[in-house]
Amino acid sequence: MAAMMGKALVLLVLTFFSTIETVRHDNDMKDSSMDRCILDNKCISGLQLQINEEMHASLVYMHMASHFGSNAVGRKGFSKFFKHSSDEEREHAQKLIDYINKRSGWMAAFDIKMPGKTSWKNGMEALQDALNLENHVNNKLHHLHQMADKICADPHVVDKCQFHQLRRFSRASWRNTRLARKLMNFLEGEFLTEQVESINEINTFISQLGAMNDGMGEYLLDRELLEKSN
């Protein structure tokens, strides 16, 4: 009899502390600072820095498009290719701005570095600069992705310990935790894959141009780029 009462007492105590833990987690989730739909300020700052990088890249490509579109250079294919690249980078910046707005963030003033180069001696030089630029932007995106994972408390995967803790949360709390992973998923789906494709494309153009005579090779690649744009 005493043993049964002892077991009953232990179960009562465990139930009591479990209830307290659940209430504590529920109260934490009511705190606006714990709302996972709202981005951490460090993440917002990281996104704003990336916006500046994307806008800088857009301006660099705009200068390239202007240079090769000049009648003194006459490389309309290169011009259209770089104009398209400029538009893409600007669209990337807009996507990041829209994402900040969706996650209840505020945009600070732009701080865009102006291009330091406005002319290129040939298409190869421009493509190599474009490759360096794409690699730079890609590295910044990976840094932002790592920030979302390590610094911003924006977990990408839920480990076993977190899973068992989350089971005690309400469905609304589980949804909030899923929202906390949105930044990493957003970067992967909208940017990182596309960066790999862009870097691969420019590398291919550099290889093709490097395998041909400079003048004729640039002319043929220019024709190919013009046909693609049309």
What does this structure look like?
The radius of gyration is 26 Å and the shape is elongated. With about 230 residues, it is an all-alpha fold. It is about 75% helix and about 0% strand. The chain contains 8 helices and no strands. The model is unreliable at about 25-35, about 155-165 and about 170-175 (pLDDT under 50).
Describe, in short, the structure shown.
With 230 residues, the chain is mainly α.
Features of the shown structure:
elongated; about 230 residues; mainly alpha; 8 helices; about 0% strand
Low-confidence runs: 25-35, 155-166, 172-177
Oligomer designation: single chain
The tally of beta strands, per DSSP, is 0
- End-to-end distance: 89 Å
As a whole number of angstroms, the C-alpha radius of gyration is 26 Å
Gross morphology is elongated
User: How would a crystallographer describe the biggest sheet?
Assistant: none
- As a percent range, the share of strand residues is under 5%
Bin the helical content: over 70%
Q: Determine the number of helices (DSSP H or I, runs of at least 4 residues).
A: 8
Q: What order do the helices and strands follow?
A: HHHHHHHH
Structural class: mainly alpha
Mean pLDDT, as a whole number? 81
Topology, please?
Elements: H1 2-30, H2 41-69, H3 76-102, H4 123-150, H5 160-166, H6 171-179, H7 182-210, H8 214-229
